[in-house]
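Hi P.,

Sorry for the delay on this. The queue was packed all week, but I finally got your sequence through. Input first:
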Amino acid sequence: MIANYHTHTWRCKHASGTEREYVENAIKHGLKILGFSDHTPMPYTEGYVSNVKMGMDQLEGYVDTVLNLKEQYKDDIEIHLGLEVEYYPKFFTKLLETTTQYPIEYFLLGQHYLGNEIDDLYSGDSTNDERQLERYCRQSQEALETGCFTYFAHPDLMNYTGDKRIYEKWMGGLCHCAKKLGIPLEINFAGIMDKRHYPNENFWRIVGEVGNDVIFASDAHQPENVWNSKALAIAEEIVNKYHLKLIDTVQFHTPRIS
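Then the structure:
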């Protein structure tokens, strides 16, 4: 593992540490590439304030901080500027109008909610309702088809507990879509470290059958989690068990207004 493109900052309200500490830890553990991808602000209407994302007024400070570190550490590590983005159709065009004013290099798709965060369901809540699984897969596929996303973060976040054949149908379709578009899927170390319901081995078995590219990512919310040898070892077991096509680095799909 030479690259981690999934790194957060204190601005998302559920991470800690300074950006410099993340960089120093990445260098200490031998990473060659560090991408910051904090939770994107959203141009919500009617005064809604997210408790899991930076505010729109914090985006410029985030960009400036990462770019300054990129310059300061250019001889030690390759730093990139990204965002982890929810695909909310209602707000996506306005979001692009804002983010394209800055040198954002990449978006990671992190589909934590169905519909949108304001008035809909969290994707990680346990459900046996096929309609929710279908919504997650259709919304994620629509996101990937925009051409704005470099890879799909924790694609197995959807916590469907119903019939495995139904899970295979919808998730198989999503994996085929990602493969057709050349978009890698992320094995998420935060899920491993926190013993969440993902990585979901049923999902990664499907990935092995479809033949998607797969990448590791720390999903670091604390500087010390930029690198975790135990999570890496478990992720490698998943790769070997399902014969996954692991890649080290990605090519950015620069988000832009079509």
